[in-house]
Specification:
Blueprint (H helix, E strand, L loop, with lengths): L9 H30 L9 H26 L11 E2 L4 E2 H26 L4
Antiparallel strand pairs: 1-2
Length: 123
Amino acid sequence: MPLYVGEGEWLAYAVHCFIPSLGDGVMVVLIYLLGLLVFRSPAWADRPRLKGYALMLGCGAVMSVVVEWGAVHILNRWSYTAAMPRWPGLDVGLVPVLQMLLLPPIAFRVTAWWLRTRARPMP
């Protein structure tokens, strides 16, 4: 990946990327669970409205900045190449933050669509 510094062979690099991907999935689930508590409806993510999107974007931004900052500056889990745009003052990559802003709404929309299509009776 041109935005991250990578070392070693492809398989080791893929495994190194797989673990943070699981973390992204956990963050999406946590955002859903928080929405479940706030909106008191398991269907809040189907049609999130303004407050639902605000929750997704706010939580996604905070979680991604905290995780990215900790992974880069405290745990030294990964580092960026010069091509990675960075958040001024925080020195975290903008791409992973943008990813967590887009991932929850897309995941919830696709899941809602998939559940609706499965609920239709087969001809």
